[in-house]
C-alpha cells in the first residue's frame, strides 16, 4: 500500500468518525412529569433553551425529546433539562428566566428549595431570618406553592416581616426583577393634618414600617442604590393604578384599610411571573366606616381559586414582646363584648 493510499484511507476514517460524532442521535424520556411543565406555555421554555444550542436539532414529541447533533451538545442539553426538572420540583412553575439562570450564575436548584423551617435570608448582622412558629412556616411553604397569598391576623405575628424576607430572597435569587411594597395611606385614628415637605416626605411616615424591615435585611447603602434604580419601590396604594407588574414580588401591607374596589385594583396589577402577598389585621381597621374594609370580603370572593392561599395567624403566633399577646387578648375581649351588646340591641329592636 502506497503512502498516498494510506493517508487517503486515514482521512476517510477520520471524516467518518467526525460525521458520526456530529450526527449522534439521542432520545430523552420525561418520566413522572407533565412535559408542559418543562416546555412551558407555547413551548417558550424549550425555545429559550434551544437558543443556547444552535447546532443541535431538537424535536419534542410528547414526553420525548429527540436530539441530533454532537455528543458534547446532546450531553450538555440533557444536563440542562435535568436541572430544569430539579428546579421545577421546588417552584410552582418554570419560565424562560429559569433557563437563563442555567447559563448565568448559580443554577443550583437548592437555591429555590425552602422548607418552612429553613433560613429565608440573613440579616445585616448575620442573624438568620426564618419562620419562628408553625403558622409562619405555613406561610413560607404557601409562597412557593401559590402566586397569591393572604396573610391575616393580629399585630406582632410577623406577617409583613416574613413577606419582605421572602421578597428579598426572591430578588437575591433572581426569581424576580424587583420588589414593590405598598400600603394605603390611611391615618391610624388621628388627624395628622398637612405634613411638611415634598410628596415623598408626606408619604414616608405611612410607609416607614416597610423601610424598617428592609433595613434589617439589606445594608443601608445597597438599599439606597436599589431604591434609586427602581429595583425596590415603596409607594402608596393609589400609585398602583394602571400598572402591570411583571416578574415582581409585590406586597400589600395593612390591607384591612382598603375597600373592595381598591383591593380588586391591586390584585389585577398581577403580571407574568409575579408573586403577590397581601397582609392585614381585620381587628385594626382605620377606615371611618369599618364596614368599608374589603380584605375579608376579597378573601371570601377568591377563596376557591387555584393558586391562592390564605394563612390565618392567631394570638398565640405573636412573636413580639410577651406582653403584646396579652394586650391583644385583653382588647379582643372588649371588642367581643361590645359586638355582642350591639347584636343583642339589634335583636331587641
Question: What would your notes on this structure say?
Answer:
The chain is 44% helix and 16% strand. By secondary structure, the chain is of the alpha/beta class. It folds into three domains: 12-111, Ribosomal Protein S8, Chain: A, domain 1 (2-Layer Sandwich); 119-318, Rossmann fold (3-Layer(aba) Sandwich); 320-349. Strand 4 (119-122) and strand 5 (128-130) form a beta hairpin. Helix 3 (44-50) packs parallel to helix 5 (96-103) and helix 6 (134-145) crosses helix 7. Residues 15-21, 106-112 and 188-192 have low confidence and may be disordered.
Provide keyphrases for this structure:
349 residues, alpha/beta, Ribosomal Protein S8, Chain: A, domain 1, Rossmann fold, 3 domains, six-stranded parallel sheet, three-stranded antiparallel sheet, 44% helix, elongated
Q: What is the percentage of strand-forming residues? A: 15-25%
CATH class category label of the largest domain: Alpha Beta
Corresponding CATH superfamily of the largest domain: P-loop containing nucleotide triphosphate hydrolases
| CATH overall fold name of the largest domain | Rossmann fold
Number of strands: 11
Number of helices: 12
Enumerate the spans where pLDDT stays under 50 for 5 or more consecutive residues.
Answer: 15-21, 106-112, 188-192
> What's the CATH architecture of the largest domain?
3-Layer(aba) Sandwich
Helix percent reads 40-55%
Q: Which value, in Å, is the CA radius of gyration? A: 27 Å
Domain module count = 3
What class do helices, strands and sheet pairing give? alpha/beta
Shape: elongated
Largest sheet: 6 strands, parallel
End-to-end distance, in Å? Answer: 119 Å
Q: What pattern of helices and strands is seen along the backbone?
A: HEHHEEHHEEHEHEHHEEHEHEH
Overall residue-averaged pLDDT value:
81
Lateral strand order in the biggest sheet: 8-7-9-10-6-11
Amino acid at each position: 500500500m502506497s503512502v498516498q493510499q494510506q493517508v487517503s484511507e486515514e482521512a476517510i476514517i477520520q471524516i467518518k468518525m467526525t460525521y458520526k460524532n456530529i450526527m449522534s442521535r439521542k432520545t430523552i424520556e420525561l418520566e413522572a412529569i407533565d412535559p408542559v411543565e418543562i416546555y412551558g406555555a407555547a413551548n417558550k421554555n424549550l425555545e429559550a433553551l434551544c437558543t443556547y444550542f444552535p447546532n443541535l436539532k431538537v424535536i419534542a414529541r410528547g414526553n420525548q425529546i429527540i436530539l441530533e447533533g454532537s455528543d458534547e451538545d446532546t450531553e450538555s442539553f440533557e444536563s440542562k433539562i435535568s436541572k430544569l426538572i430539579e428546579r421545577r420540583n421546588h417552584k410552582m412553575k418554570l419560565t424562560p428566566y429559569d433557563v437563563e439562570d442555567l447559563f448565568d450564575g448559580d443554577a443550583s436548584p437548592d437555591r429555590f428549595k425552602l422548607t418552612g423551617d429553613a433560613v429565608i435570608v440573613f440579616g445585616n448582622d448575620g442573624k438568620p431570618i426564618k419562620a419562628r412558629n408553625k403558622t409562619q412556616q405555613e406561610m413560607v411553604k404557601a409562597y412557593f406553592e401559590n402566586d397569591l397569598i393572604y396573610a391575616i391576623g393580629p399585630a406582632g405575628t410577623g406577617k409583613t416581616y416574613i413577606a419582605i424576607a421572602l421578597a428579598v430572597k426572591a430578588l437575591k435569587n433572581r426569581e424576580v426583577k424587583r420588589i414593590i411594597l405598598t400600603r394605603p395611606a390611611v391615618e391610624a385614628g388621628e388627624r395628622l393634618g398637612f405634613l411638611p415637605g415634598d410628596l415623598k416626605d408626606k408619604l414616608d411616615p405611612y410607609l416607614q414600617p416597610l423601610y424598617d424591615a428592609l433595613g434589617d435585611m439589606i445594608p443601608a447603602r445597597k438599599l439606597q442604590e436599589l431604591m434609586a434604580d427602581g429595583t425596590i419601590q415603596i409607594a402608596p396604594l393609589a400609585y398602583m393604578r394602571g400598572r402591570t407588574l411583571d416578574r415582581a414580588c409585590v406586597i400589600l401591607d395593612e390591607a384591612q384599610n382598603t375597600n373592595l374596589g381598591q383591593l380588586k385594583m391591586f390584585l389585577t396589577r398581577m403580571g407574568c411571573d409575579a408573586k403577590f402577598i397581601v397582609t392585614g389585621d381585620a381587628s385594626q381597621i382605620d377606615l371611618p366606616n369599618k364596614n368599608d374594609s374589603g380584605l375579608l370580603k376579597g378573601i371570601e370572593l377568591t377563596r376557591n381559586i387555584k393558586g391562592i392561599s390564605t394563612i390565618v395567624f392567631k394570638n398565640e403566633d405573636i412573636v413580639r414582646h410577651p406582653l403584646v399577646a396579652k394586650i391583644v387578648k385583653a382588647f379582643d375581649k372588649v371588642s367581643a363584648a361590645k359586638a355582642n351588646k350591639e347584636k343583642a340591641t339589634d335583636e331587641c329592636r
